[in-house]
Specification:
The chain is mostly helical. The chain has 9 helices and 2 strands, in the order ααααββααααα.
Length: 280
């Protein structure tokens, strides 16, 4: 039995390709990701969602990243997503106005509305996942931390610990591939001892839950141990929370960053204003 979790995790990874997307300022990439995320959220048009996902694939190509590799991160959660979308397809059929009814049998009802809702949900999940993956694949965690801290710096006036918030977010992203590697090792260890790991069917959520319960405790213990090691390493380097510090990394804003932000603002406004064809 093979367990390939780490190679299927794209969020938190960084691949240096020296592309034009990599050379953008991290603040511009963070703001662009926020604007694209807002565009994905506000539109209920299937055509607009398709155009947005094509835009994200084009950004991946511009970053010299394979779209297949970016989408690979969906594989570990694919079975759960399929189950959730099937449940949504079944239970959204009774909402009115439903449109044309394709299948109706006892409590089962599949309509045009339910198919549209499920399709829109699938596209949104893929888009948000690709968007977050592109942000981490094209930007080192250190630059993301500095960029997020600078963007949140005005909140210092009201007492928000900006540096600590940025640091916690970036540590959480960085720990995703680390915990995936630990989970892969735990699954291999339990499978080598005869444990039933990776054998549950995706349409049996009860079996999937029972299969994953023995993995939760050792994974949490490993996460706590790694967090304690990180705390000791930061204390050994004289890290003091709330202390004023200088930055070794100096960010530079260019004309390309400004043009990128203006382009993303235009995309958001178009996705917000042009709802064709939309459904309620």
């Amino acid at each position: 039995m093979e367990f390939e979790l780490l190679r299927n995790i794209t969020i938190g990874q960084y691949i240096p390709t020296n592309s034009v997307v990599h050379r953008l300022d991290p603040r511009a990439k963070i703001l662009s990701a926020i604007l694209l995320g807002m565009a994905i959220s506000v539109t209920s048009s299937l055509i607009t969602q398709i155009l947005l996902i094509l835009l994200l694939f084009s950004i991946a190509k511009a970053a010299r990243l394979q779209v297949r590799y970016v989408l690979r991160g969906l594989l570990p959660s694919l079975r759960v997503l399929i189950f959730l979308f099937i449940i949504q397809l079944l239970f959204q059929g009774w909402r009115e106005p439903s449109g044309p009814i394709f299948v109706e049998w006892y409590w089962l009802r599949i309509t045009e509305y339910s198919l549209r809702v499920v399709t829109l949900g699938i596209l949104r999940v893929i888009e948000f996942f690709v968007l977050l993956s592109l942000l981490t694949l094209t930007t080192p965690a250190t630059q993301l931390t500095h960029g997020l801290e600078i963007l949140l710096s005005p909140l210092r006036r009201i007492g928000v610990p900006v540096h600590e918030v940025a640091l916690m977010n970036m540590i959480a992203l960085r720990f995703i591939p680390t915990l995936a590697e630990e989970l892969e090792q735990i699954m291999k260890a339990q499978a080598s001892r005869g444990g039933r790991v990776g054998q549950a069917r995706w349409w049996r959520p009860d079996q999937m839950a029972r299969e994953r319960i023995p993995l939760i405790v050792p994974l949490f213990l490993t996460a706590l141990r790694r967090s304690e090691e990180l705390i000791l390493a930061m204390e050994a380097r004289n890290y003091v929370s709330g202390a004023k510090r200088t930055r070794f990394v100096r960010l530079g804003w260019t004309t390309l960053d400004t043009l990128t932000i203006l382009l993303m603002i235009c995309i958001y406004l178009l996705a917000w204003q042009i709802q064709w064809p939309a459904f309620n």
